């Protein structure tokens, strides 16, 4: 689960992180009061969407010469003008895709006198099984570009969970960022509190780009991107309250209500599979035969008829779906339950696209019989390779 920048900063501020004063607004009418509540005279008006690259983004409705999604204002009046122009319009960035995202929230923040921009993040390092810091002197840039062109400027530092961030870890991070004196002392404290926030809140990513040094030597969290482990949200009702459903795919929202592992993709073949590994293999073989999957959907090992029905409805609700592949290998999951769920869903919403069903495993004979006697126009398959070829052929006419 992702949250907005202003929410992330408020959360980190609760741990003691140095952040600027700022006010979130939801309408242009709130902009003047928000700006006047800040010290000024420099204000930063930031679009709040779940995507990076906002500053370089473009508002599709405002023409090619329009400013991006992060703008400086040197007066209250200019901040208000920016707010009126940005709210309600669609911002397209490198991470949104061509469709972009509508800006429904802005964050008006007090400006900063920047001396240096640095990069700092925490993530789960799968290779070491630890939370790791990633630090670079090249702040304000895409870290992927830095990794490609100047990888020597990136430090990855795994943290021992038994000790947390030690003084030696903090010294190493400060040194890699070329910090000294007052800035280094402040940053070392920030490193420790960021790690504490990451672990206590079950984050999966905490990215600060840039982490800045101001001309007076103080350090500040100038931007913050935070993602949480969805599997741990039951422990954090305060975090769940920060969820912005307008930033999420409607199908993914519906899937979460049924505890389905669903991710919308850009293809045209809908997939309903049990088990993450089999789902990945199914998507791979669809691509192998020249088509693209429309989703990742794992119904899990113990899905009920109702859950399977919900999953099928979610797939068919996607207008991009031109064919559906149901691929079930029943261990814990029973093939007859899958069959009953598919039939119930088809009877409820109809079937206007080709459907290929491959069943194997527990109660497979019963499942196939249910499908065969349903009267549905279903294409049966013997194995995964056969199923993939048939659904691609059916979609391609």
UniProtKB/TrEMBL annotation:
Keywords: ATP-binding, Ligase, Magnesium, Metal-binding, Nucleotide-binding, Tricarboxylic acid cycle. Mg(2+) binds at residues 209, 223. Substrate binds at residues 274, 331-333. The keyword tRNA processing does not apply. Its cofactor is Mg(2+). It is an enzyme of class 6 (ligase). This is Succinate--CoA ligase [ADP-forming] subunit beta. One of its GO terms (biological process) is tricarboxylic acid cycle. The gene is sucC. It catalyses: succinate + ATP + CoA = succinyl-CoA + ADP + phosphate; GTP + succinate + CoA = succinyl-CoA + GDP + phosphate; (S)-malate + ATP + CoA = (S)-malyl-CoA + ADP + phosphate. Its EC number is 6.2.1.5. It comes from Pelagibacterium lentulum. PROSITE patterns: ATP_GRASP (PS50975), SUCCINYL_COA_LIG_3 (PS01217). Heterotetramer of two alpha and two beta subunits. GO terms for cellular component: cytosol; succinate-CoA ligase complex. PANTHER family: SUCCINATE--COA LIGASE [GDP-FORMING] SUBUNIT BETA, MITOCHONDRIAL, SUCCINYL-COA SYNTHETASE BETA CHAIN. The keyword Nucleotide-binding applies. Succinyl-CoA synthetase functions in the citric acid cycle (TCA), coupling the hydrolysis of succinyl-CoA to the synthesis of either ATP or GTP and thus represents the only step of substrate-level phosphorylation in the TCA. The beta subunit provides nucleotide specificity of the enzyme and binds the substrate succinate, while the binding sites for coenzyme A and phosphate are found in the alpha subunit. One of its GO terms (molecular function) is magnesium ion binding. Residues 9-241 form the ATP-grasp domain. ATP binds at residues 46, 53-55, 109, 112, 117. It comes from the Bacteria. Pathway: Carbohydrate metabolism; tricarboxylic acid cycle; succinate from succinyl-CoA (ligase route): step 1/1; One-carbon metabolism; formaldehyde assimilation via serine pathway. Binds 1 Mg(2+) ion per subunit. It holds the Pfam family ATP-grasp_2. Belongs to the succinate/malate CoA ligase beta subunit family. InterPro entries: ATP-grasp, ATP-grasp_succ-CoA_synth-type, ATP_grasp_subdomain_1, Succ-CoA_synthase_bsu_CS, SUCC_ACL_C, Succ_CoA_ligase-like_bsu, Succinyl-CoA_synth-like.
């Amino acid at each position: 689960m992702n949250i907005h920048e202003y929410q992330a900063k408020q959360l980190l501020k609760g741990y003691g992180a140095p952040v600027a004063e700022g006010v979130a607004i939801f309408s242009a009418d709130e902009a003047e009061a928000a700006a006047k509540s800040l010290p000024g005279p420099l204000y930063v008006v930031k679009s709040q969407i779940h995507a990076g690259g906002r500053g370089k983004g473009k508002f599709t409705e405002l023409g090619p010469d329009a400013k991006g999604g992060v703008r400086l204002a040197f007066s209250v009046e200019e901040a208000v003008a920016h707010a009126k122009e940005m709210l309600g319009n669609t911002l397209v960035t490198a991470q949104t895709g061509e469709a972009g995202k509508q800006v429904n929230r802005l964050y008006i923040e007090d400006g900063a006198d920047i001396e240096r921009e640095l990069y700092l993040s925490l993530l789960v390092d799968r290779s070491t099984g630890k939370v790791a810091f990633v630090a670079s002197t090249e702040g304000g840039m895409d870290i992927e570009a830095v990794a490609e062109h100047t990888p020597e400027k990136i430090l990855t530092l795994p943290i021992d969970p038994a000790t947390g961030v030690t003084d030696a870890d903090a010294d190493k991070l400060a040194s890699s960022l070329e910090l000294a004196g007052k800035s280094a002392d402040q940053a070392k404290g920030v490193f420790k509190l960021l790690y504490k926030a990451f672990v206590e809140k079950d984050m999966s990513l905490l990215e600060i780009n840039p982490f800045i040094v101001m001309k007076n030597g103080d350090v500040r969290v100038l931007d913050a991107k935070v993602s949480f482990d969805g599997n741990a949200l039951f422990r954090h009702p305060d975090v769940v309250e920060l969820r912005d459903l307008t930033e999420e795919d409607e199908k993914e929202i519906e899937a979460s209500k049924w505890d389905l592992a669903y991710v919308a993709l850009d293809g045209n073949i809908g997939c309903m599979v049990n088990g993450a590994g089999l789902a990945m293999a199914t998507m791979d073989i669809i691509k192998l035969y020249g088509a693209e999957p429309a989703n990742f959907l794992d119904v899990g090992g113990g899905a009920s008829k109702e859950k399977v029905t919900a999953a099928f409805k979610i797939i068919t609700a996607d207008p991009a779906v031109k064919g559906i592949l149901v691929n079930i290998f029943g261990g814990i999951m029973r093939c007859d339950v899958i069959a009953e769920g598919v039939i119930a869903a088809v009877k409820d919403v109809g079937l206007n696209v080709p459907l290929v069903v491959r069943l194997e495993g527990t109660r497979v004979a019963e499942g196939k019989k249910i499908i065969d006697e349903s009267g549905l126009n279903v294409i049966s398959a013997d194995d995964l390779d056969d199923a993939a070829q048939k659904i691609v052929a059916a979609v391609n006419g």
